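User: My collaborator and I are trying to settle a disagreement about how two of our proteins should look. Neither of us wants to argue from intuition anymore, so we agreed to look at predicted structures for both before our next call. Could you fold the first one, then the second, and keep them clearly separated?

Assistant: That sounds like a sensible way to settle it. I'll keep them separate. The first protein:
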Amino acid sequence: MQNKALIVSTMGSQCKILVMRAEACGSCEACNACGAKPSTYVIENTLQAKPGEAVMVEMKDADFFRRVGLLYVLPMLLFVGGIVLTDLAQKPLGMHAEALDLVGGLLGLVLYWAVIRKVDRKEPDTPAMRMLYRTTLEETSSNCCEVQH
């Protein structure tokens, strides 16, 4: 996945970039109507770009989908899984307490918290994003929500 980014500042071999998540907008052509805001990241400045310059950055699709899975899919699965397992555990006992199902779901989220903390300790602090090449902010694109300067 590639996006245009604006160099905000540089700090040694790293730089702070501003990226508009183009995928979030698709082709709805209602820019800023949904309140989508650009994201700020600190990445390696492999192009020695200066503040105010625009660069094209890339994140591998596999890294992107892995992070989406960890942040959105896994907690939902553990929450729903906790509810289902609690409900199934109650049936042989002749019980059906929805409050216990909710507790099971919350226990699933506690399990998610433990898993994500372990993963977070292993992951580097820098995003899995890299610079590809310099570009211009004026470069035209079919995407309405590009970084504006």
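The second protein, kept apart from the first:
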Amino acid sequence: MSDSESDKEMLFLATIVEAEEQEQEYKRKHKMWVHDINTKRHIFGEHHHLFPDFLRDQKNVFKYFRMSPEKFYELLKLVKNDIEKMDTTFKRAIPPEERL
């Protein structure tokens, strides 16, 4: 085998290895279904921290939502079926109260 044939063969093998590495990197990048920040939403999210406090103080509810808690729950009842999602085996759905 001549040096030029050997060089071509090495270049061909290097190209194949590089393509396989790029494919594996692509698979790793796109394997994540949910961003890390969203997986911690039920712990650190605004709804889980502020909403219970807002319900204790009518003035804050109105300042934040521009409606009374009664109106919020009335609106929730109207749109609940439209905004409700189902849990999957991959991720939990955001509850309608939090989506609204």
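Some points you might bring to the call about the second protein. Helices lie at 3-29, 36-39, 41-44, 46-56, 58-65, 69-83, 96-99. The radius of gyration is 26 Å.
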